[in-house]
Amino acid sequence: MNGTNTYLTANDFSIFESVTPLGFAVRDLNFRILVHKNGVNYKSMSCDNSASTITINKIDYFGLNDMGNPVYKITGSVDANVKNLSTQNVVPITFTTTFGVEIK
Which of 27, 47, 78, 84 is most enclosed, with most CB atoms within 10 A? Predict the structure, then answer.
């Protein structure tokens, strides 16, 4: 990004913090959880997750990807709600996760 070049800047994304798609609870950011456990499917999209948390616990350099860009390994903890798609019951879920992010 380059603030002196209008073609290389990012527009104001704050509209995404105040506009929520119909049928979804208002939230600052979206993190979708899909779980398949013991033959049952769970989803977070139709639950109230306004009090849910995602905590970044650790960020480590991982290496270069095939394009030669640096990749970082991120470890985090998630506390949220998911809905059993068969019974429509909402249940809490807590887990840790690790994923990679390319950062140019």
Answer: 47
